[in-house]
Amino acid sequence: MSRRHPHGAGSGCLDPTVAVKSTFGAEFRRFSLERSKPGKFKEFYGLPQHVHKIPNVDILVSYADIHGDVLPINNDANYHKAVSAANPLLRIFIQKKEEADYSAFGTGTLIKKKNVLTKLFRPDKQRKKPHIVISMPQDFRPVSSIIDVDILPETHRRVRLYKYGTEEHLGFYIQDGSSVRVTPHGLEKVPGIFISRLVPGGLAQSTGLLAVNDEVLEVNGTEVSGKSLDQVADMMIANSHDLTITVRPANQRNNIIRKSQTSGSSG
Amino acid sequence: MRRFLRPGHDPARERLKRDLFQFNKTVEHGFPHQPSALGYSPSLRILAIGTRSGAIKLYGAPGVEFMGLHRENNAVVQIHFLPGQCQLVTLLDDNSLHLWSLKVKGGVSELQEDESFTLRGPPGAAPSATQITVVLPHSSCQLLYLGTESGSVFVVQLPAFRALEDQTISSDAVLQRLPEEVRHRRAFEMVEALQEHPRDPKQILIGYSRGLVVIWDLQGSCVLCHFLSSQQLENVCWQRDGHLIVSCHSDGSYCQWPVSSDTLQPEPLHSCVPYGPFPCKAITKIFWLTTKQGLPFTIFQGGMPRASYGDRHCISVIHNGQQTAFDFTSRVIDFTVLIEANPEAALDDPYALVVLAEEELVVIDLQTAGWPPVQPPYLASLHCSAITCSHHVSNIPLKLWERIIAAGSRQNTHFSTMEWPIDGGTSLAPAPPQRDLLLTGHEDGTVRFWDASGVCLRLLYKLSTVRVFLTDTDPNESLSAQGEDEWPPLRKVGSFDPYSDDPRLGIQKIFLCRYSGYLAVAGTAGQVLVLELNDEAAEHAVEQVEADLLQDQEGYRWKGHERLCARPGPVHFEPGFQPFVLVQCQPPAVVTSLALHSEWRLVAFGTSHGFGLFDHQQRRQVFVKCTLHPNDQLALEGPLSRVKSLKKSLRQSFRRIRRSRVSSRKRRPAGPPGEVQEGSSRAERTGLQNMELAPVQRKIEARSAEDSFTGFVRTLYFADTYLRDSSRHCPSLWAGTNGGTVYAFALRVPPAERRMDEPVRAEQAKEIQLMHRAPVVGILVLDGHSVPLPEPLEVAHDLSKSPDMQGSHQLLVVSEEQFKVFALPKVSARLKLKLTALEGSRVRRVSAARFGSCRAEDYGEHHLAVLTNLGDIQVVSLPLLKPQVRYSCIRREDVSGIASCVFTKYGQGFYLISPSEFERFSLSTKWLVEPRCLVDSAETKNHSRPRDGSGPEKASGKARNSGSQSDGEERRSGPVMEHALLNDERVLKEIQSTLEGDRGSCGDWRSQRVAVGYGLSNGGGCS
């Protein structure tokens, strides 16, 4: 019952209503939406809860698009996209938020011969074949990425922070410190710039890619060695709309291990 | 992207750059910070001043200046010229002696350090044994007598500083040669005075602090005479003929002693306490000088009645029944009296008294009745009242120049007409090619006009805005306070007066139109005055207007100072700049930007709340615009500093508490209880030190519209350009804010014939929001040839080509972070240069300047001179925004130096290196104002004594300057003046550790100087 149904069950594309097949666990329900006036995501969100009789459970809604990809519905934009692209049946999948498995999302997830729902319910199976993971799907805008993995030493991490508008905060502090470098004369203590604090709820903290005591090595491609704290701070602020910083993480255990030549921007 | 921003390597362009740009620090104007010693050479007629940072500065005739810096950066304690020589010896507070000489190199004199020396005692002797208290250069110029704290007089040979141990005059040797009755008294202790016999170089006088004075025969090693006073000796003066000695003492008395070989121990001829009978302070130095009239001049420092006038800094002059106690505004460092230089002359005939006070140099004419002061042509006390802003105007038309000088000469009537008496050396610098004015605004509401054309920064005229306002103190009261029959006969001299009646009077912005003579000044309490130059005194009322910058914004409450209260009714104004309009901003926040257009008769002003435009022809407000962000509460709190400093001091005190707690807890377990107390106090000390070194955190946050002070108006600019469409140009006003917003207003100014009938209209035409929201620090419009638009009236006076109105105009907006060029009228972005994003430095000052070529007479280019927050100076090309050159100029820690910088229109600039000194620098190869002078001992009328056989050495020197010392000798440390201003070792170390990068650039700078040589100077006329 959880298998894919062939397309074309409904009539032509100009049908003013969209048939929705909602799957939650082992059960499914059907309802319909008006194609021209789908309404807001917030209003839609209540429908699956209602039809599956799980009114107070936080759910994660996803749908299968025409390419067979499982994509989330979590805002007005992708909701409208899902409704308008339904041909004519819109298949949606409901998961409880606490049980959600984000890794299921992504390119070609549905096309693959593997059953989506078996994957959803038995995530342990999935470990055998890891997927390329897209970041948190709460919002489809990228907030951060690790870049240039192939050209940087493994101990370094280049993080790009994307900032939209003025409503978000970058949310971190830097300060002077000293780090130890290997030089021809042995180990030497050199002054460095370090992340000293992350503001809770700020962009820097939410990415999980920056941490307190990470040493800042570069800002948008410019090395910071020899620059004062004020200079580095000013450089970061001047680049704040598209900030790329290269750090040496204080915690070196989560480094990306390169096996072979991977693509430049993984993650 | 960055690839294109790198300077190109086009060899032709590189060559041209060498012809156009070159960096030099040329002169230090003003009064040396923290002077500590004074020296004067009667034969060279040159004055020397030493400072606590180890600098020595020599001044002769106007334009003759030299500067040297001791490598040690220790305070200069004494300066002595070798008689008749171009050489001088300095004593530093680390007890080292240094020999400097003026040597001629390439036709100009140069000050160089030749030797240095530290007196060493015998092994095991106390350090005080060799602590030098007095230095006496012998007239033979080969020996130096050094009096010490131990009472011994050591002898060293010049110029190599070879100690002649066999000639040491120890106190024991003197004691043995004294009669019994003197010997039993402990008459010794340190040497306070050493003098050579005025006529006989074989005799010297030694004065010991306990009151014993002996005349010592150098050849016979015996005591010729001795004098014993009951009081502690302070100093001694030997009359010119050698027959009389005058000693001064710590109880405020002085004694005269006759010198004759027959009586071995004479009694004082005369002894008196000039300001007795109540206890007096010490007389620390005395001069007893003979005159033609027969009556001597007695000039002494101190001696005031301890209880009532003990806090005064006085020098008394007594002559012919007249007595005046000159009362100085700051501590007297030292003084000297200018007398007949020829040692053969029978009489002293003093003509001037030169007093070095802590904050100014005062010269008093002793020949003119009433002893009036002489106006110094240099060493001006720039900081008589603290400098709050400065403004430079290049190339002043002769007419305006003469009118300002005429107005100023009326203010200087109390000065003596005597020629400047310190006139040694010859200035070889060519006459300045143009007349430049530097205007400084001061905390007390005055504006001073300085002649900045040449090496000497001379005060031309002083404007006071105080009369317009009602202040607590009436200016007329303070002057006539002194009665006739007062005792002591005090007379205030000097201009240093750092106390401001009302901080709101402070001047913050100045704008002078050099063609019309209109001047606008704006101050701390939102006052904007428009002034006009009038050659006659006048009495008129100043029209008052209030500009409400908050307009319709509701619910704001200004918590800062109140606005100034204007004086009602007509006010009397001296000839000079007379105010006729007063605009008062409401709320009365400090005026942060000001622009004046003398052709359109408009003045624009901005504060942290908004900006306004005022028509001073019709005396009508054209418009006001509030720039305040609704959430910006801080802007309303009042003066910015208060908010910030409170926050900072709170944070610091918290940190201090936390630190001291932590460190004392750590210490506690160690040692017995007795030590704990001490340990914790020490811990507190270290805690305090740590507190200062505690790491500072910087928050990384994008600028947002809600940041504080985004509405702060940073820059205002008038331009006649294409604002609305590309076919018609119109007058416009541009304003840039702290939040990266640029407002453009189209103005309609009625034609001249209907100027009074129709109102000026303004309409907002454009608003640009820079994405990066950094403060806008400069706005400039470039004409069709990419040349900055000329100043108002410049074209009308045929001094500038009219701007190209055919091609398309471009708008240049300079923010703290980047330079951006927009096409007009569409305001579409053309190109930009990012500064902060790439280098981390921010623009502090920017100004367009014309750089002339040193090779081609009429070739010049317009570029931007930029000062960054790191103290670097860069030249950025127009209109392509390519960085041309970069020099490091100011230490990055020197925030006040960076804030004080002004650029001229021809690639020079000034910044404050101390509260009282401007450093002048030049970026141009063509415009270079620096001293070039020659001092030659042969040209002077002196005369080392023939019998010495040495004759005047043909020593002459070479000039300048600020540690230029470019001859590449290894002893030259190439010091930079500002470094010396920091005496604190810890701070220095800290700076050094953070400034690794600066080392290299400092070296670069020096090598540049070397390459420059002295062949270049002020180029020809401007084109």
From TrEMBL, chain A:
Keywords in alphabetical order: Cell cycle, Cell division, Cell junction, Cell membrane, Cytoplasm, Membrane, Tight junction
Keyword hit for Cell cycle: yes
Transport recorded as keyword: no
SMART domains, sorted: PB1, PDZ
Major place of residence: other
Family: Belongs to the PAR6 family.
UniProt-listed GO biological process terms: cell division; centrosome cycle; establishment or maintenance of cell polarity; regulation of cellular localization
GO cellular component: apical plasma membrane; bicellular tight junction; cell cortex; nucleus
Gene3D superfamilies given in the database record: 2.30.42.10, Phosphatidylinositol 3-kinase Catalytic Subunit, Chain A, domain 1
Domain PDZ span(s) in chain numbering: 158-251
Domain of life, source organism: Eukaryota
Database matches in CDD domains: PB1_Par6, PDZ_Par6-like
Name used for this protein in its record: PDZ domain-containing protein
Every PB1 domain range: 17-97
Natural source organism: Monodon monoceros (Narwhal)
Subcellular location: Cell junction, Tight junction; Cell membrane; Cytoplasm
Taxonomic classification: Eukaryota, Metazoa, Chordata, Craniata, Vertebrata
UniProtKB/TrEMBL annotation, chain B:
Compartmental location: Cytoplasm
Pfam family membership, one: LLGL
WD repeat extents: 433-451
Function as written in the Swiss-Prot or TrEMBL entry: Part of a complex with GPSM2/LGN, PRKCI/aPKC and PARD6B/Par-6, which may ensure the correct organization and orientation of bipolar spindles for normal cell division. This complex plays roles in the initial phase of the establishment of epithelial cell polarity.
Ranges of compositional bias, category Basic residues: 657-669
Disordered as annotated region, ranges: 657-690, 939-984
One cellular component term from this protein's GO annotations in UniProt: cortical actin cytoskeleton
Organism placement in taxonomy: Eukaryota, Metazoa, Chordata, Craniata, Vertebrata
Alphabetically ordered keywords of this record: Cell cycle, Cell division, Cytoplasm, Exocytosis, Phosphoprotein, Repeat, WD repeat
Biological process according to GO: branching involved in labyrinthine layer morphogenesis; cell division; cortical actin cytoskeleton organization; establishment of spindle orientation; establishment or maintenance of polarity of embryonic epithelium; exocytosis; Golgi to plasma membrane transport; L-leucine transport
Subunit structure: Interacts with GPSM2/LGN, PRKCI/aPKC and PARD6B/Par-6. The complex is enhanced during mitosis. Interacts with DCAF1.
Basic and acidic residues: compositionally biased ranges: 939-951
Residues in Lethal giant larvae homologue domain copies: 273-372
Family: Belongs to the WD repeat L(2)GL family.
PROSITE patterns noted in UniProt: WD_REPEATS_2
Protein name, as recorded: LLGL scribble cell polarity complex component 2
Keyword flag Hydrolase: no
Main location per the UniProt record: cytoplasm
